[in-house]
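pls design
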């Protein structure tokens, strides 16, 4: 009888211990969820040409700012600025052109005091790696040699705007109209050339550097177009201005600049 009572006692103690473990496990799980939910998400709307550099920056920034989680949305600067103006959720805007940032600033879409230039770029003529096209300068481009020339849409894509300015300066824009294939952003222009769907294309030097499927034939002279400057700013409607500013500061820091240089930015 005593043995039976002792057995029941031990059984009850064991069940209570298991229940305690289950409670601790549940508490630990809840604690992890709480820790995860404590992170502030910073939404960064950025020019497509920044894709590779920003993706490399993300883990190092988050490691140094373990209370922040960064999410990117890439596209053409003009369309991103328009999205912000229309109320799209965003904390940071990184533009590939001064013009698109100016428009947003004029409409009080950004925090003016946070605005800063963080990179520069160059305009280059690219062709598929195996292309036999013999061109050493933009001035040497002959419309008769090309079936398709991929460029960014000039109205909304900064690289397209710089391209148009360049060819207008050279008196060639109208002559090339029948050859133009328009891309929604600079990465689509790069893809057209990589895939052979365009004989040549105009992209940033940084984009050309990311691809092993293309080669650079020529670089546009800076005086042919407006300066290719990348301004960044905290979006006025953000609820996370401190974290957004921290991301911008990191981009301008020595570590951030090293990564940008690695991907061809100046």
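designed seq:
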């Amino acid at each position: 009888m005593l043995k039976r009572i002792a057995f029941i006692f031990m059984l009850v103690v064991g069940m209570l211990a298991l229940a305690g473990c289950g409670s601790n496990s549940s508490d630990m799980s809840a604690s992890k969820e709480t820790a995860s939910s404590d992170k502030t998400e910073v939404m960064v709307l950025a020019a497509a040409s920044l894709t590779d550099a920003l993706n490399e920056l993300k883990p190092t920034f988050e490691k140094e700012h373990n209370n922040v989680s960064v999410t990117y949305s890439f596209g053409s600067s003009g369309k991103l600025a328009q999205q912000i103006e229309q109320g799209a959720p965003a904390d940071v805007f990184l533009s590939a052109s001064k013009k698109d940032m100016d428009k947003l600033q004029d409409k009080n879409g950004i925090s003016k005091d946070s605005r800063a230039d963080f990179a520069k770029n160059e305009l280059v003529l690219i062709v598929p790696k195996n292309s036999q096209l013999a061109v050493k300068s933009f001035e040497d481009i002959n419309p008769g040699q090309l079936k398709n020339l991929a460029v960014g849409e000039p109205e909304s894509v900064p690289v397209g705007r710089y391209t148009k300015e360049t060819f207008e300066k050279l008196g060639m824009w109208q002559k090339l109209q029948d050859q133009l294939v328009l891309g929604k952003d600079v990465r689509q222009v790069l893809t057209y050339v990589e895939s052979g769907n365009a004989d040549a294309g105009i992209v940033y030097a940084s984009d050309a550097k990311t691809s092993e499927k293309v080669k650079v034939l020529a670089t546009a002279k800076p005086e042919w177009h407006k300066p290719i400057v990348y301004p960044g700013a905290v979006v006025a409607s953000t609820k996370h201005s401190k974290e957004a500013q921290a991301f911008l500061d990191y981009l301008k820091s020595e570590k951030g600049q090293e990564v940008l240089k690695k991907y061809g930015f100046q």
